[in-house]
Write a structure and sequence with these properties.
Helix content: 10-25%
Low-confidence stretches: 227-236
Radius of gyration: 18 Å
Largest sheet: 11 strands, mixed
């Protein structure tokens, strides 16, 4: 478990594609339980240890995930997420780039729960929710394009669904139309950073997650990552 930031009230980790944030039908240990064990062992805490989930990432997605270590922090962070006061930035690798190198997407998304999939439409449909994001091209390799994405809404599979809708499915994302899976079961979508005002200290914080170690991620981001990306920040 790679810890990116920790203080008395919050902890952020860099999730891998093999990890889940909360428990599911697989029975695999979720990150929230792993963090509880870490806190209990590191600080010799007696009894039950608190770890509050503030947001989630799909299993095949990597990147920064923020948890609350106190009930007060969790309540305040939940309110901040609901008021859209938390900025999340994603990086996505696509084979077919969007027609415009920079733009804004608006679609109406309908979630199909039995399929665990969402569908994007140009016009409103029954039970649809408006989904908005902006993107820009920030790097290219011989065969792939790296997009930086800023979410304006937080819909189910939003980035995956909207990029597929414009003909730019994320590398490895079979569910949304990419022809081949990635060897490690990931999709090439990374929660790069999260920015917010600390729920207790009220200081602005940005937490950045280094990209996965595979060759393509390292090559396509070689000119973008700073030295700080090579090791976790410690905010204890």
């Amino acid at each position: 478990m790679e810890i990116l930031y920790e203080d008395n009230h919050i902890i952020a980790v860099n999730k891998t594609c093999s990890e889940i944030v909360q428990g599911d039908k697989t029975g695999d240990e979720p990150l929230c339980d792993a963090i509880k064990k870490y806190l209990k062992e590191t600080y010799a805490k007696p009894g039950n240890v608190f770890c509050g989930v503030t947001h989630r990432l799909d299993r095949p997605v990597s990147g920064v995930v923020l948890f609350a270590k106190t009930g007060k922090a969790l309540t305040r962070l939940n309110d901040m997420f609901q008021r859209h006061e938390v900025e999340k930035v994603y990086w996505a690798i696509v084979k077919t780039p969007p027609a415009d190198p920079e733009g804004r997407l608006e679609h109406y998304i309908v979630r199909n729960e039995p399929q665990n999939k969402s569908y994007a439409y140009e016009t409103h449909k029954t039970s649809a929710k408006l989904a908005k994001l902006s993107y820009k091209t920030i790097a290219k390799s011989d065969n792939y394009t790296l997009l930086e994405i800023h979410l304006e809404t937080g819909r189910h599979h939003q980035i995956r669904c909207q990029l597929a809708k414009i003909g730019s499915p994320i590398k490895g994302d079979l569910k949304y139309g990419f022809p081949r899976s990635n060897p490690d079961g990931s999709i090439s979508l990374h929660a790069r950073s999260i920015s917010f005002v600390h729920p207790v200290s009220r200081k602005p914080i940005t937490i950045t997650a280094p990209v996965p170690s595979d060759r393509l991620w390292q090559e396509i981001t070689s000119g973008l990552q700073s030295p700080a990306d090579t090791s976790p920040a410690d905010g204890k």
